[in-house]
Specification:
Elements lengths: L1 H62 L5 H78 L2 E4 L2 E5 L8 E4 L3
Antiparallel strand pairs: 1-2, 2-3
Helix pairs in contact: 1-2
Protein name: Relaxation protein
Keywords: Membrane, Transmembrane, Transmembrane helix
Amino acid sequence: MDTEQSLKQMEQFLGAAAALTQQYERQMGAFAEQARQQLDSAVSQQKREMMQFVRENIQSELDSVLKGYAADMEEVRQKMVAQSSEFNTYLSFVNRKNRQLAFRSWLAVSVSLAILLIGGAWIAYYYAQVIGKNKVDAETAQLIGQADLVRCGDDLCVKAGKVQKNGYRVVFKR
């Protein structure tokens, strides 16, 4: 009964480990989705700000003197190149951090699964050894249970043919 109970506990443990792994995968998926949404929001905000900046700059240039039009447009172009470069740098940084996070998440899940598999294999091996050790005792107990044993005063007697009265013989103690 103790072995069955241990096996049931091991099954419950493995079920809980599988559920924990699934929950961790769901959480990592939700985190990745949240990061993607934040990145989309940041990109959208940058687009809006850049569009607003361009509109204001163009309107102010149209109001200004035609003579400074070419010089001012070059200045605007330089600012846009610098902002685009800064944005690309920021985007590269975010992508690098996302890759690091994905790798670390994958590594954590892999290590967790490896630990669970090794632990499960060890537990299975341990209980297989316990079962192997107790198998002989269980077989002996089964044979004793099937034998025709009776109490003869302070001793046990076993039916062994017509050796003594009623065919029972005294079993010697160790």
